[in-house]
Specification:
This protein is an alpha+beta fold. The chain is built from ten helices and 13 strands. Helix 1 packs antiparallel against helix 3 and helix 6 packs parallel to helix 8. It starts with a helix and ends in a 6-residue tail after the last helix. Pfam families: CAP, PAN_1, PAN_4. It comes from Adineta steineri. One of its GO terms (biological process) is proteolysis. Keywords: Disulfide bond, Repeat, Signal.
Length: 367
């Protein structure tokens, strides 16, 4: 059903709501709730057209090893994302995927590629690559197999090599060598830029120079998520000349407990509750990998904010982001059992009658 049709249907319900209002709640409360539904439909449509991969302010995770230029990985590619405008965003995307062992970014096409296994690399002018295993993908050559050979793209062929150990040393000395093949009968050494399929056979000695690939997560995703929420709040608060917020452990726990509860129930949370300065947000899992984009969605509600007659029921998220009286915030995030839905709760420390406090707490952009 299109957003326009949905809004028309809700508007019809609103215009004929007097009959049912007395059975549930007051007409005013129902009108507010239906206005929220219309606003939510508009927000859902907006989110579908908005690209959610936002940059982090600094590298937080473990995807900063092996950062190299003009090369890209061989391997099993599991991530392919267009329109990422920086290397950092590509790195962040891989960092937040526990199966991603490495990434390659092409600034010309703005494509980001992630790999769940890496078998080598090859020349790719202009591209940049990195790994996410906490160490270099290339390791000292130690494997030595006498029952066959690895296939690969030949970097260099050496003649008159007296032993497989000398062949291994030659691979160690070449940064782009990831496997080797020694032929005793010919005393030749082939150096490969990747480790391909192993083929059993006699008369060859071969080995891989690739480190074991296991993610070593140095960043806690929720910690990163909370930091992003704080930084983005303070970015937009500066536009309104209101003080910065700080993260609060008690508010983090309060928010996390509610997010966990909502995720366990896996029901659509109330869009608007008169419970003070707390925001509940939900969406398809991983629709927003970074909290920056979510806070941006909240802040963009300002386009609908009525400065002459403010009301949380129509734009309940924007005022909370820039609320002058708030000093602290806490963030919780949880996923439903099937991981199809993400629930986020952001709580603020301000206490008081917010219905009478708009004028002194929701300030326009300062000059």
């Amino acid at each position: 059903m299109s957003v326009l049709i949905s809004i028309i249907l809700i508007s019809i319900i609103l215009s004929n709501f007097n009959v049912e209002a007395s059975r549930t709640r007051s007409k005013i409360e129902k009108e507010k709730y239906l206005r929220q539904l219309i606003r939510q439909l508009q927000w859902n449509e907006y989110k579908r057209s908005y690209y959610y991969y936002h940059t982090r302010t600094e590298a937080e995770g473990d995807c900063t090893a092996d950062i190299i230029g003009d090369l890209r990985w061989y391997g099993e590619q599991t991530i392919a994302i267009p329109s990422l405008d920086t290397t950092q965003r590509c790195m962040d995307t891989c960092d937040m995927d526990s199966k991603c062992m490495g990434w390659t970014y092409d600034p010309d096409t703005k494509w980001c590629m992630g790999y769940n296994s890496i078998t080598g690399l090859y020349s790719a002018p202009g591209m940049k690559s990195g790994s996410c295993i906490g160490t270099s993908i290339k390791s000292k050559c130690s494997e030595k197999r006498v029952d066959g050979q690895y296939s690969g793209t030949n970097l260099k062929k050496l003649e008159t090599v007296s032993s497989p150990e000398d062949c291994m040393t030659a691979c160690d000395n070449l940064n782009t060598c990831y496997s080797w093949l020694y032929t005793p009968q010919l005393q030749t050494c082939d150096l490969f830029d990747n480790m391909g399929t192993f083929y059993p056979g006699e008369g060859f000695i071969t080995g891989s120079c690739i480190a074991p690939q296991k993610r070593v997560r140095l960043a806690e995703p929720l910690k990163v998520f909370r930091k992003e929420a704080l930084e983005r709040h303070n970015d937009v608060r500066k536009k309104h000349c209101v003080p910065d917020l700080t993260l609060d452990s008690d508010l983090n726990k309060l928010s996390q407990d509610l997010a966990t509860k909502l995720a366990a129930e896996d029901n659509m949370p109330p869009i608007y509750q008169e419970t003070g300065l707390q925001t509940v947000y939900y969406d398809i899992a991983d629709a927003a990998r970074h909290c920056t984009s979510i806070v941006d969605c909240f802040y963009d509600e300002r386009n609908y904010y009525d400065w002459n007659s403010p009301d949380f029921s129509a734009t309940n998220r924007f005022p909370k982001v820039i609320w002058k009286g708030s000093q602290k915030l806490g963030v919780g995030r949880a996923f439903s059992t099937d991981t199809n839905t993400m629930y986020i709760v952001i709580s603020y420390d301000w206490q008081g009658d917010w219905t009478q406090s708009y004028k002194e707490n929701v300030l326009p952009v300062c000059t």
